[in-house]
Amino acid sequence: MATGDVRPRDWGYVLGREIGVATALGVTVGAAVWLLGLTRAAPEVAAVVAIAMVLVVVAGSLIGMALPVLLQRCKLDPATASTPLVTSLADIAGLLIYFGVAVVLLDLPVAA
């Protein structure tokens, strides 16, 4: 965006590419942590960590792609505001995804 190579009209193409690359990276890292989880914990825990890893990588990539576009549309400088905000939002999303996957797959009770 800063160099003008990506314009708002290219959003669909960039989104598709980001999802593809993030999914490939997430599956690769998810497979690695799944194997590690099998050697150090139960298969259920390995599955939780692997699935959460794939979802966290994809979510982080989508946040990192969408936030600068959103900031630019709000007439804010995407370069200065996006790094800490992307990191914080990706961390929050990562925890929510991880615990959500754990609750669903491990059949844990949900606090009221």
From TrEMBL:
Belongs to the SLC41A transporter family. Signal peptide: none annotated. It is a multi-pass membrane protein. GO terms for molecular function: monoatomic cation transmembrane transporter activity. Gene3D superfamilies: SLC41 divalent cation transporters, integral membrane domain. This is SLC41A/MgtE integral membrane domain-containing protein. InterPro entries: SLC41_membr_dom, SLC41_membr_dom_sf. It comes from Alkalilimnicola ehrlichii. Coiled coil: none annotated. Keywords: Magnesium, Membrane, Transmembrane, Transmembrane helix, Transport. The chain crosses the membrane at residues 21-39, 45-71, 83-106. Its main location: membrane. Residues 1-101 form the SLC41A/MgtE integral membrane domain. GO terms for cellular component: membrane. PANTHER family: MAGNESIUM TRANSPORTER MGTE (PTHR41394:SF8). It is found in: Membrane.
